[in-house]
Amino acid sequence: MLTSIESSEAATPRHDWTRSEVEALFDLPLPELMFRAMAVHRAAFDPAEVQLSQLLSVKTGGCVEDCGYCSQSAHFDTGLKASRLMAAETVIADAARAKAHGAQRFCMGAAWRELKDRDLPELARMISGVKALGLETCATLGMLTPRQAAELKAAGLDFYNHNLDTAPEDYARVVSTRTYDDRLETLGHVRAAGMSVCCGGIVGMGESRAHRAGLLHALATLPVHPESLPINALVPIPGTPLGDSPPLDGLEFVRTVAVARILCPRSVVRLAAGREGMSRELQALCLMAGANSIFIGGKLLTTPLPGEDQDRALLADLGMRAMGAQPTGAEPLALSA
Ligand code: SAM
Ligand code: DTB
Ligand code: SF4
Q1: Number of domains the chain is built from
Q2: What pLDDT is attached to residue 12?
Q3: Which of 111, 146, 262, 278 would suit a FRET pair with 23, their CA atoms being 20 to 30 Å apart?
Q4: In angstroms, what is the span from residue 157 Cα to ligand 3's centroid?
């Protein structure tokens, strides 16, 4: 039985959370935090379902931004080879393979500070081709103008990923070449164009618990909660300023997921980067705490994910299935063979 607090928590998403309320959630005994997150999760979603996305880096490396976690920044020597924007046909062929392997959404990422108009025609072909396969489309291409956002929407883009990464007061430690307000401005253009928002952040960058609370507070007090909310665990990249960050304790990561679930009860919370470094048991705790999306396909943008066989075995062992797939009882596998 849910108490009235937990059921109302799920029924009416709030946008007026205070920082101290968010910090108090982080400070709850873990069993209490998990119970509340699980109750909220069940009120809006089937907890046996997980949304499956696949990423492709359609333009890799050489980025002018200095995000201290990123393998693709031209400011740091990470040994990554830069490449130009891929041809639409190549991307569409990759998306078709992703769909055949069980992906529901295909996300195209580019190492750009901002989208340039000259690249829009190729991107529009890419997006409409991926959409025509019957996949949900997502892109992450840096800052957008209102007109560019409208053109991407017209091409068939369903989601735009643009992360806030950390708390507002921690942002300058992580990135110096843009501001939090720059990020919020693009998110506003994405909303105004009628696209869904994918927005989250990274933990394990040496930030404090107060900063993790500040990130989630910023996300939960947006005018509309992001439809997708990725929580990335830093994948440490040698050569980047944050590459030597001390790893975040797994239970603190679970707390972060649980708090995100409670704050944004209707959002799909994604267990995003860093899954490769996590045990099956830690991933299971995150999925129980309210994460209900993962990236699949063996690779994020430039860093590895668990292999398809490992993901299939994990979901089968947990009795979980792809979002929207029929429960079969006999075969609870989410990924196609
Ligand atoms: N250039 C675009 C931008 O920054 O918005 C899109 C690509 S960028 C790689 C997408 C997101 O990936 C970043 O906002 C960040 O949250 C995440 N990310 C990048 N490098 C990461 C790393 N090493 N570990 C975890 N997350 C990372
Ligand atoms: C998000 O929040 N995580 C994904 C997606 N949005 C674009 C990217 C993770 C990138 C991890 C580092 C890499 O593979 O380069
Ligand atoms: Fe560029 Fe995005 Fe990497 Fe920042 S996170 S350096 S904007 S590719």
Answers
A1: 1
A2: 82
A3: 278
A4: 20
For residue 112, the enclosing domain spans 16-320
63 is catalytic: yes
Question: Does residue 44 have its Cβ closer than 6 Å to ligand 2?
Answer: no
**Residue ranges in the chain whose pLDDT is less than 50:** 1-4, 330-334, 336-337
In a domain, residue 2? The reply is: no
Read off the CATH number of the domain in which 289 is found.
Answer: 3.20.20.70
Q: Which atom of ligand 3 is nearest to the CA of 178?
A: 7
Q: Which residues of 44-71 are buried (b: 16+ CB within 10 A; e: fewer)?
A: bbeebbbbbbbbbbbbbbebebbbbbbb
Q: Is residue 199 annotated as a catalytic residue, yes or no?
A: no
Distance 116 CA to ligand 3 centre (A): 15
How much is the pLDDT for 327?
Answer: 67
- With a 6 Å cutoff on the Cβ, whether 67 touches ligand 3 is yes
Of the candidates 219, 232, 56, the residue with the CA atom closest to the CA atom of residue 130: 56
- Alpha-carbon distance of 186 to 46, in angstroms, equals 32
pLDDT tens per residue across span 147-161: 999 999 999 999 999
For the Cβ of 201 lying below 6 angstroms from any atom of ligand 2, the answer is no
* pLDDT at residue number 89: 98
